[in-house]
Amino acid sequence: MPNFADQLLAAIDAKQSPACVALDPVFESLPDELRSGVRSEDQSARLLAIGTFSRRVLELIAQHIPVVKINSAYFECYHADGVRLYDELLAEAAAMGLMTIGDCKRGDVGHTAEMYATAHLGGLTPHAITINGYFGLDGVKPFIDVAQTAGKGVFVLVRTSNPSAAAIQDVVTEGGRKVHEIVASQVNEWATDRGMTGISGYSSIGAVVATRNPADAARLRKAMPNSIFLVPGYGAQGGKASDFAPYFNPDSRGALVAAGRSVIYAFSGASPNWAGCITVACQRLCAETAGILSF
Amino acid sequence: MPNFADQLLAAIDAKQSPACVALDPVFESLPDELRSGVRSEDQSARLLAIGTFSRRVLELIAQHIPVVKINSAYFECYHADGVRLYDELLAEAAAMGLMTIGDCKRGDVGHTAEMYATAHLGGLTPHAITINGYFGLDGVKPFIDVAQTAGKGVFVLVRTSNPSAAAIQDVVTEGGRKVHEIVASQVNEWATDRGMTGISGYSSIGAVVATRNPADAARLRKAMPNSIFLVPGYGAQGGKASDFAPYFNPDSRGALVAAGRSVIYAFSGASPNWAGCITVACQRLCAETAGILSF
Questions:
Q1: Which of B134, B146, B230 is the mutation pick for testing A, counting most A CBs within 10 A?
Q2: Which whole number is the average pLDDT over A178-187?
Q3: Which residues contact B121 (CB under 8 A, 6 or more apart)?
Q4: Are the C-beta atoms of B144 and A144 separated by less than 8 Å?
Q5: Which residues of chain B does A161 touch, with a Cβ-Cβ cutoff of 8 Å?
Q6: Are the beta carbons of B251 and B262 closer than 8 angstroms?
Q7: Are B241 and B248 in contact (CB under 8 A)?
């Protein structure tokens, strides 16, 4: 059975970029030519346009980038037909040689968590998913178990970047640690104790870390040395590639930065060459993030 | 626009029971007659049997119980076809006069949370869903916004009952409060400040509270006086109805206890009268939980 962490790092090496494209497609942001003639209440036609766009994006980025992250929420709002498209896109991306992450942030306990794990990591599903660790190990173990059997991975939410995240995640505990640091130390325990470590030394149990504070990033990097960080928000707030250096280990490994809108919407709506704009933006993302690896 | 909390309490009054049936169907637990002849690898046939069973359960319980909670995970593992059945069952349950809760525990921030909120609370969706509050207000507000527009409700995860929940949820903070108490105080703020309170005095922003410690339940009851508690696990661990009294306010309101397996699997597999067994178990659940209201 392959190890997800090893596969991911090999894909990063092969494409010389520790980046992934976040595919979160909304109808309103598609190129004009794909939106033209679609009535706003026609959910099937909207979803069809999203499918056409998403497939084209996958074709455009597959030769440049190692990983695509597809966000379940943007498909769930189209109910069963959307979920079918989500599954199809993940399978098609994998067939194009992309590593795939299902961004679905599932979390529950016991048998329910087993069902979510089967749904999102069993059979023909992405190489890894994002999960919520608020439940402790009971909520995470069912995902780890299915991931281990299937050679897949999980990224546990540790610190999110939204303004109010601090209200819960940064509350200081009696021992002086913040809540998200407690979660981080749990993730590190799971990452090292659960037989998920590959020959690379990295674990298939990773972490979503989205703090915008370099000192916090460096601290979390030390707290979870064997976990690969999934770091969203590259390009969205105008940050430079070097701002993302603290997420990496001294071996230039250990993080995957994700860029969404700056790549998939890198065109003006009326442009006849929207596909070319996406390709250029993806190439730029790869080149910029390749630069982080020299830190 | 109706207020979810008012609707829920009226439904509880009408059926004289503060209980809901948790519909978490798995093929292996269905009556023999529904499983007979279905090959284990035939996902469509398995899902068809689950649909037949679930529809029968809804018919059997609708006249006795005020609310059904349907767990998304048990349908997501059948991918798009499962999600279609989940949506259909929720709509059919509502048409039978049941209040419906979609147990999907979604959580994210920003635009992604808006998409989840639209998916699970917009249009033809349940009266309320469960959500994860680890993100703080940014992660909850998009759900509240859609719920408010649609006259629906949310139950925010505060304390789960699994053994390892304490590892994160019970960590003590500098101020002496546990992490889940911080979440509870946030929920109480949102419940009272967001214009979601009905004429009953209860808010459409509720909480999932599943501690098995009566003192904890009483403390959380005081911390979130205007929130309705969704309390899973009734009947599963052999607890008595009186054990659930601390989840209620002195007005005998404010909680909805959920029973799953003890109702929907209240038969032996080979029984030709499995439907009768479910009806009896549902009636017993209603009678027992009606007794809590006299405390």
A1: B134
A2: 94
A3: B128, B129, B143, B146, B147, B150, B152, B154
A4: no
A5: 109
A6: no
A7: no
- Contact in structure between B281 and B262 (CB atoms under 8 Å): yes
Angle A188-A193-A194 from CA coordinates, rounded to 5°: 105
Q: Residues of A with CB below 8 A from B74's CB?
A: 112, 115
- Residue A109 is nearest to which of B24, B110, B162, comparing CB atoms? B162
Mean pLDDT, to the nearest integer, of A144-171? 93
What confidence tens digit (pLDDT) does each residue in A203-235 have? 999 999 998 888 999 999 999 999 999 999 888
Tell if the CB–CB gap between B167 and A174 is shorter than 8 Å.
Answer: no
SS3 content of chain B, % helix, strand, coil (to 5): 50, 15, 35
Q: Which of B80, B120, B166 sits opposite A87 (nearest CB)?
A: B80
Contact check, Cβ <8 Å, B160/A171: no
Task: Determine the length of chain B.
Answer: 295
CA A69 to chain centre: 5
Q: Please state, in angstroms and rounded to a whole number, the distance separating the CA atoms of residues A81 and A73.
A: 13
Token pair belonging to B40: 């284990």
Asked whether the beta carbons of residue A119 and residue B173 sit closer than 8 angstroms, the reply is no
What is the DSSP secondary-structure string of B166-226?
Answer: HHHHTPBBTTS-BHHHHHHHHHHHHHHHSS-B-TTS-EEEEEEE--S-HHHHHHHHHHSTT
Percent of chain B whose pLDDT exceeds 70: 98
The burial of B287, by beta-carbon neighbours within 10 Å (0-12 exposed, 13-18 middle, 19 or more buried), is given as middle
Check whether A239 has a pLDDT greater than 80. no
CA distance B118 to B127: 13
Q: Among this protein's residues, is B15 annotated catalytic?
A: no
Q: Are B199 and B3 in contact (CB under 8 A)?
A: yes
- Contact at 8 Å (CB) between A204 and A4? yes
Hey, are the CB atoms on B132 and A137 less than 8 Å from each other? no
Catalytic residue among B15, B69, B105, B178: B105
Q: Please tell me the distance from the alpha carbon of residue B232 to that of residue B143, in angstroms, as a whole number.
A: 22
Is A80 close to B76, i.e. CB distance below 8 A? Answer: no
**For residue A258, which of A71, A89, A120 has the smallest C-alpha distance?**
A71
Encoded tokens for B283? 């009636």
| Sequence letter at residue A54 | S
Contact between residue A130 and residue A103 where contact means Cβ atoms under 8 Å apart: yes
Q: Which of B238, B231, B274 is nearest to B254 (CA)?
A: B231
pLDDT over threshold 80, residue A133: yes
How far, in Å, CA of A14 to CA of A8, rounded?
Answer: 10
Of the two residues A237 and B253, the one the predictor is more confident about is B253
Q: Is the ipTM of this complex over 0.90?
A: yes
pLDDT (average), residues B5-33: 97
Q: How far apart are CA B62 and CA B15, in angstroms?
A: 10
